[in-house]
Amino acid sequence: MPSGAPSPPDATALPALGERVLIWVAFPLLGAGAGWLLRYVAGWAASLPWTPFEGPLRLVGSIPPTAFTIGAVALGAVAGLVLAVIADEYTVKVVVDDRQVAVAHRGSRREVPRGSIAAVFLDAKQLVLLGHDTEELVRQGGDLPRPGPLAAAFQAHGYPWREGDPHREEFRRWADGLPDLTDAAHAYFRARARALEKGDGEDAEQLRLELARLGVAVREENKRQFWRLTGRPPSG
Known about the structure:
Elements: E1 12-14, H1 17-46, H2 54-62, H3 65-90, E2 93-96, E3 100-105, E4 108-113, E5 119-123, E6 126-130, E7 136-140, H4 147-156, E8 172-173, H5 183-198, H6 201-213, E9 216-221, E10 224-229
Antiparallel strand pairs: 1-2, 2-3, 3-4, 5-6, 6-7, 8-10, 9-10
Helix pairs in contact: 1-2, 1-3, 5-6
C-alpha cells in the first residue's frame, strides 16, 4: 500500500476517524473560547491594586469591545488550529488489515506483511512487532492509540497479540566492553547513549535500527539501555 493510499474496506484505522476529527474541532473551539474570555480576564487583572502588566492591560481596555472580541476569537481559533496540527503530527497512526500492518508517525510510514509478524504487544508506551526470528520489526513510541482499541484491532484481524514482551527476561543491561557484543555493536551503543543523553530521539532510533541489523534488539528505561540477541543473522 503506497503512502497516503486509502485503506482497504476491512481495515481498522487507529485512532478512529471520529477521535481525530474531535481534535481538529475541539482545539480551535477551545482557542476561540479562550480568546472570547481574554477581555474579561484582562479587565479583572486591570482592576487589581497592582499588576506587572498594567500598560498592556490598559491598551487592551482601550480597544473597542466588538473589534477586540472578534480579533481575540479569531486569533484563539488559529492558535487552536496550530495546536491541532501539532497534535495530529505527533499522533501515531496504525492501520491493521488482514494483509499487513501500517504504522505512520511524523512523516514516516512502515508497512509489515502479516506473514512476517510472530507477536504484537505493548512494551510500556511502545508498540512492538516481532518477527519469527524474535527480531523487532517495529518498535514505535509516541502518542499511541489507546491500549484497549489497539489490542482489539489486532485481535479482530487474527494477529498474535501478547500481553507483554515474551522475551523480556532475556534483556540485559548494556555495559561498554561486554564480550557478548561485537566492537561495532558497542560503538553503536556508545553513540546511542550520547543521543539519549541529549534527547535526540531521531538519532537514537537510527542507531537502534543499525543494532537491529547486527541482530541486537534494544530497549531503554530512563536512558539506560538493555539488549538481547535475536535469531536473525547480522545483515551486511
